[in-house]
Specification:
The protein is α/β, with parallel strands linked by helices and 288 residues long. The protein has one domain (2-222): Alpha-Beta Complex (Spore Coat Polysaccharide Biosynthesis Protein SpsA, Chain A), CATH 3.90.550.10. The chain contains 13 helices and ten strands. α1 packs parallel to α2, α9 (179-189) packs across α10 (197-205) and α12 (256-263) crosses α13 (265-283). It is globular, with a radius of gyration of 18 Å. The mean pLDDT is 93.
């Protein structure tokens, strides 16, 4: 089972938590191959991620995106995602990164917690579809924005719109769709400058041609109330994250205590110190 994650040096710990949650909640661990598409990591952070192989019989494949001419070019030219950084464009290259032996791959965002057998999702019959995903609960607002009037020449609010945090991909069909080529066309025409980065682009490329999956495989803006609904994948898209350290923030986040122990206490608190240091450096004007 091939699973792809994309992250930069500030998200190594959540990437580890997502990987470990996949491992903990499946019995098919020896089948897992994680494709780690990352910006250049420190030796310590790479060692933290490699630790997963000492606990579970999984395979790691590493892709340093800073060594990729294509990624560096796209990250420099495409509209800047100030909240998440331009690492978001890495998933569009997935067919260019993995080998020809990979026929199917599951992409997961690193702000996710998996708590069901990922094999059930991975084995879903895609039929003739290139991808499978979950409808985004606020898709119409993402595309239409104020009063749902923006980009109506591109998106119809009545058309289902998927969240790209979890995408099951038929690699050959993805490759045939020429996602990078479509992005270059959108950039040249000015469309990329108008839309919500890579997620909107994927919805344009695969509009009406994706398999809609049940909500539990990508529970968007995972809140405490979702716990009673038995979600399979929690997606922490809201402002509050499960790696926060203030109890008031965590009270609204689904499975916050479970998440901390999935990340492991040692890494959780080390990541908290890392984030505090970054916050203070930014506050003092010593970093962007």
């Amino acid at each position: 089972m091939h699973i792809a994650l994309t992250f930069d040096a500030n998200f190594w710990a959540p990437a580890y938590a997502t990987m470990r949650s996949v491992c903990l909640f499946t019995k098919r661990r020896e089948e897992l191959v994680f494709h780690l598409c990352h910006r250049t990591l420190s030796d310590q952070h790479r060692s933290d991620l490699t630790a997963i192989t000492r606990e579970f019989p999984v395979t790691l494949k590493w892709y340093d995106l800073d060594q990729s001419d294509m990624f560096r070019d796209l990250a420099a030219r495409m509209p800047e995602n100030k909240r998440l950084s331009n690492i978001v464009y890495a998933r569009l290259m997935i067919d260019r990164l993995v080998g020809s032996e990979v026929e199917r791959i599951l992409y997961l965002d690193c702000d996710m917690l998996v708590r069901d057998d990922i094999g059930q999702l991975y084995d879903i019959d895609l039929g003739e579809h290139a991808i499978a995903a979950v409808r985004d609960t606020v898709g119409a607002f993402i595309t239409g924005r104020r009063d749902l009037k923006s980009n109506r020449d591109l998106f119809d609010p009545a058309e289902y719109y998927f969240n790209a945090g979890m995408v099951l991909i038929d690699v050959a069909k993805w490759r045939a769709a020429d996602v990078i080529g479509r992005m270059e066309e959108a950039y040249a025409s000015g469309v990329m400058q108008r839309i919500y980065y890579d997620q909107d682009l994927l919805n344009l490329v695969f509009m009406g041609r994706w398999l809609k999956l049940p909500w539990r495989w990508n529970t968007i803006d995972a809140r405490h109330a979702h716990e009673g609904l038995d979600p399979a994948i929690l997606h922490y898209t809201g402002h509050n994250k499960p790696w926060g350290i203030f109890s008031g923030m965590l009270q609204t986040v689904a499975y916050a205590q479970l998440y901390r122990h999935v990340m492991t206490n040692e890494l959780f608190y080390r990541f908290a110190r890392h984030r505090w240091k970054r916050w203070w450096l930014k506050r003092l004007g010593l970093r962007r």
